[in-house]
Amino acid sequence: MAVDFGDHASGFRHTEVIRFVNDEVLMNGGGPDFYAALRSRPWDEVEERLRTVLADPQVPRATKRACAWSALALSVRVGARQREQQERQARRLQSQVEERETAAWALASELQRLRGERESAVAQLRSTQAALRQTLVECDALRGRLLQVERASRVVPLARERVPGPPRPQVMVPLGASRDHSQEEGPKRPQGMAPLVASRSSSHEEDPERPQ
Question: Which residues are in coiled coils (predicted)?
Answer without folding.
Answer: 83-131
